[in-house]
Amino acid sequence: MRIVSACLLGIKCRYDAKSNPDKKVIKLLNKEVLIPVCPEQLGGLKTPRKGNGILDGDGRSVVSGNAQVIDRGRKDVTKNFIRGAKETLKIVKLYNIKEAILKQGSPSCGCGLAFQWKKINGKWSNRRHKGNGVTTTLLKREGIKILTEEEIK
Protein backbone atom coordinates (compact mmCIF):
# COMPACT_ATOMS: atom_id res chain seq x y z
CA MET A 1 0.00 0.00 0.00
CA ARG A 2 1.27 3.44 -0.98
CA ILE A 3 -0.03 6.96 -1.19
CA VAL A 4 0.11 8.63 -4.57
CA SER A 5 -0.42 12.14 -5.86
CA ALA A 6 -4.06 12.07 -6.94
CA CYS A 7 -3.30 13.89 -10.20
CA LEU A 8 -1.15 10.94 -11.32
CA LEU A 9 -4.25 8.73 -11.17
CA GLY A 10 -6.20 11.09 -13.42
CA ILE A 11 -8.02 13.00 -10.67
CA LYS A 12 -8.46 16.63 -11.75
CA CYS A 13 -6.97 18.30 -8.70
CA ARG A 14 -4.09 20.30 -10.16
CA TYR A 15 -4.10 24.07 -9.76
CA ASP A 16 -5.64 24.38 -13.26
CA ALA A 17 -8.30 21.69 -12.60
CA LYS A 18 -6.45 19.24 -14.86
CA SER A 19 -4.64 16.02 -14.03
CA ASN A 20 -1.33 14.38 -14.86
CA PRO A 21 -2.37 10.77 -15.51
CA ASP A 22 0.63 8.48 -15.65
CA LYS A 23 0.14 5.10 -17.36
CA LYS A 24 2.76 3.36 -15.20
CA VAL A 25 1.21 4.60 -11.97
CA ILE A 26 -2.33 3.75 -13.11
CA LYS A 27 -1.14 0.25 -14.08
CA LEU A 28 0.03 -0.26 -10.46
CA LEU A 29 -3.63 -0.19 -9.41
CA ASN A 30 -3.90 -3.75 -10.77
CA LYS A 31 -1.19 -4.92 -8.35
CA GLU A 32 -1.58 -2.90 -5.16
CA VAL A 33 -3.65 -0.45 -3.17
CA LEU A 34 -2.84 3.17 -3.96
CA ILE A 35 -4.38 5.89 -1.79
CA PRO A 36 -4.75 9.15 -3.75
CA VAL A 37 -3.92 12.40 -1.96
CA CYS A 38 -3.70 16.02 -3.00
CA PRO A 39 -1.89 17.89 -0.23
CA GLU A 40 -2.95 21.26 -1.61
CA GLN A 41 -6.64 20.31 -1.40
CA LEU A 42 -6.09 18.69 2.00
CA GLY A 43 -4.61 22.03 3.07
CA GLY A 44 -7.80 23.86 2.14
CA LEU A 45 -6.97 25.23 -1.29
CA LYS A 46 -9.70 25.04 -3.92
CA THR A 47 -9.50 23.68 -7.43
CA PRO A 48 -8.93 25.46 -9.69
CA ARG A 49 -6.51 27.81 -7.94
CA LYS A 50 -3.65 30.08 -8.89
CA GLY A 51 -0.31 28.38 -9.53
CA ASN A 52 2.00 28.28 -6.51
CA GLY A 53 5.71 28.31 -5.90
CA ILE A 54 8.14 28.41 -3.02
CA LEU A 55 9.67 31.85 -2.62
CA ASP A 56 13.49 31.64 -2.63
CA GLY A 57 13.77 28.30 -0.89
CA ASP A 58 12.58 24.73 -0.84
CA GLY A 59 10.24 22.56 1.21
CA ARG A 60 12.75 22.30 4.03
CA SER A 61 12.91 26.10 4.25
CA VAL A 62 9.11 26.29 4.34
CA VAL A 63 8.72 23.59 7.01
CA SER A 64 11.36 25.28 9.19
CA GLY A 65 9.61 28.66 8.85
CA ASN A 66 12.31 30.31 6.73
CA ALA A 67 10.45 30.51 3.39
CA GLN A 68 6.93 31.01 2.08
CA VAL A 69 4.73 29.48 -0.56
CA ILE A 70 2.97 32.13 -2.60
CA ASP A 71 0.54 32.01 -5.48
CA ARG A 72 0.75 33.94 -8.75
CA GLY A 73 -1.19 36.78 -7.16
CA ARG A 74 1.52 36.99 -4.46
CA LYS A 75 -0.89 35.65 -1.79
CA ASP A 76 0.86 33.73 1.00
CA VAL A 77 -0.50 30.15 1.07
CA THR A 78 2.21 28.72 3.32
CA LYS A 79 -0.27 27.69 6.04
CA ASN A 80 -2.29 25.73 3.48
CA PHE A 81 0.79 23.86 2.28
CA ILE A 82 1.90 23.03 5.82
CA ARG A 83 -1.62 21.91 6.77
CA GLY A 84 -1.86 19.74 3.63
CA ALA A 85 1.50 18.13 4.36
CA LYS A 86 0.43 17.37 7.94
CA GLU A 87 -2.91 15.92 6.78
CA THR A 88 -1.05 13.73 4.28
CA LEU A 89 1.23 12.56 7.07
CA LYS A 90 -1.84 11.63 9.16
CA ILE A 91 -3.04 9.37 6.34
CA VAL A 92 0.42 7.81 6.05
CA LYS A 93 0.50 7.06 9.78
CA LEU A 94 -3.11 5.83 9.87
CA TYR A 95 -2.35 3.16 7.27
CA ASN A 96 1.28 2.57 8.30
CA ILE A 97 2.48 3.49 4.80
CA LYS A 98 6.21 3.39 4.13
CA GLU A 99 6.36 4.62 0.52
CA ALA A 100 4.80 7.34 -1.62
CA ILE A 101 4.67 8.14 -5.33
CA LEU A 102 4.51 11.91 -5.68
CA LYS A 103 4.34 14.30 -8.65
CA GLN A 104 7.73 15.60 -9.71
CA GLY A 105 8.05 19.38 -9.80
CA SER A 106 5.12 20.22 -7.53
CA PRO A 107 5.73 22.73 -4.71
CA SER A 108 3.92 20.19 -2.48
CA CYS A 109 4.94 16.82 -3.86
CA GLY A 110 8.14 17.51 -5.79
CA CYS A 111 11.09 15.28 -4.99
CA GLY A 112 14.40 16.69 -6.16
CA LEU A 113 12.62 19.37 -8.20
CA ALA A 114 9.91 21.79 -7.10
CA PHE A 115 8.41 25.00 -8.47
CA GLN A 116 10.05 28.02 -6.89
CA TRP A 117 9.70 31.75 -7.39
CA LYS A 118 13.00 33.41 -8.23
CA LYS A 119 13.83 36.91 -9.30
CA ILE A 120 15.80 36.68 -12.55
CA ASN A 121 16.99 39.86 -14.24
CA GLY A 122 14.52 41.86 -12.18
CA LYS A 123 11.50 39.72 -13.11
CA TRP A 124 9.75 37.01 -11.09
CA SER A 125 9.85 33.57 -12.63
CA ASN A 126 8.18 30.36 -11.45
CA ARG A 127 10.43 27.50 -12.56
CA ARG A 128 11.46 24.07 -11.41
CA HIS A 129 14.54 24.26 -9.22
CA LYS A 130 16.44 21.73 -7.17
CA GLY A 131 14.82 20.91 -3.87
CA ASN A 132 11.85 19.07 -2.43
CA GLY A 133 8.27 20.22 -2.02
CA VAL A 134 6.67 20.84 1.37
CA THR A 135 4.86 17.48 1.69
CA THR A 136 7.86 15.53 0.43
CA THR A 137 10.05 17.23 3.03
CA LEU A 138 7.68 16.37 5.87
CA LEU A 139 7.24 12.75 4.75
CA LYS A 140 11.00 12.23 4.29
CA ARG A 141 11.59 13.51 7.83
CA GLU A 142 9.32 10.69 9.01
CA GLY A 143 11.31 8.09 7.06
CA ILE A 144 8.86 7.66 4.19
CA LYS A 145 10.49 6.65 0.91
CA ILE A 146 9.48 8.98 -1.91
CA LEU A 147 9.41 8.00 -5.56
CA THR A 148 8.42 10.21 -8.48
CA GLU A 149 6.32 9.02 -11.39
CA GLU A 150 9.53 9.07 -13.41
CA GLU A 151 11.05 6.38 -11.17
CA ILE A 152 8.22 3.86 -11.62
CA LYS A 153 9.20 0.98 -13.88
Explain this structure.
The protein is α/β, with parallel strands linked by helices. The protein has helices spanning 23-28, 39-42, 59-63, 78-94, 134-141; strands spanning 2-5, 34-37, 52-55, 68-71, 99-102, 113-120, 123-130, 145-148. The strands form 2 sheets. The protein has a 4-stranded parallel β-sheet with strand order 2-1-5-8. Strands 4-3-6-7 form a 4-stranded mixed β-sheet. A hairpin with a 2-residue loop joins strand 6 and strand 7. Helix 4 packs across helix 5.
List keywords for this structure.
153 residues, 4-stranded parallel β-sheet, 4-stranded mixed β-sheet, globular
| Mass-distribution shape | globular
Number of strands: 8
Number of helical segments?
5
> What is the chain-wise order of helices and strands?
EHEHEHEHEEEHE
Strand content: 25-35%
The oligomerization state is single chain
Strand order, largest beta sheet? 2-1-5-8
Span between termini? 17 Å
Largest sheet: 4 strands, parallel
Structural class: alpha/beta
Radius of gyration: 14 Å
Q: Estimate the helix proportion, in percent.
A: 25-40%
Mean pLDDT: 91
**Are there runs of 5+ residues with pLDDT below 50, and where?**
none
